[in-house]
Amino acid sequence: FSVLCSAILSSYLLGERLNLLGKLGCMLSLVGSTVMVIHAPEDEEVTTLDEMSSKLKEPGFLAYAAILLAVCFLLIFYLAPRYGQSNILIYLTICSVIGAFSVSSVKGLGIAIKGFFAGRPVLQHPLTWILVITLVASITTQINYLNKSLDIFNTSLVFPIYYVLFTTIVITTSIILFKEWITMTVVDIIGTVCGFLTIILGVFLLHAFKDMDVSLGNLPQVLQSGQQAPVTRDDKNILIEVDNSSIAPEDKPQVFMIYT
Fold it and tell me: Which residue, 158, 156, 161, 153, is CA-closest to 211?
């Protein structure tokens, strides 16, 4: 949704032109989001910090969190110093893996805020402060490595790849933490996967071809020019052309041909 809104708002507020492929990408993103919402499982009701704490202490989520932390430390301390400047996936994978902890922390803090306004002693609960520290640390790390990636690589590549990686990690985290897959049928699973793949295709069309001048008016010309084989001498009014492409020595005369 954020990728779609940024593309639409930038076309109106910043004057950036949204070509035909970009509009198709927006439509595909909307269709994919609608399909995912239709087939999305019902969220398990977690209303207290004690219930959230029991979810976080389950062996499946603890093993999943340990794997994410090991991958994150490997990327930060070993792969990033060696390959971060040349491989776009290093920094973006760090941001996406850390995003699993930030999303879980936001979910828990949302429950804590509801409990605070309901008069519950959430400030005395240790999980509240653990979630605050985790959220601050994860967001700081995400911003740091996302900015590094934007400084080195093209924005048109960074945002689509980051969106796909981050969304995949978040969906996986939600499925493992809240066990949403238990209530999903085969149709819902297939629909969710197809909707997600449709969103990926839409985001790809939105960013990969945003610099191309493609519209309904010039679409036949673009297709025709793409089908034609490249011709070296397509201009018959060329006056002078070097007969030999290699550079001739200065002590030898150069040969030119004149076309009429």
Answer: 156
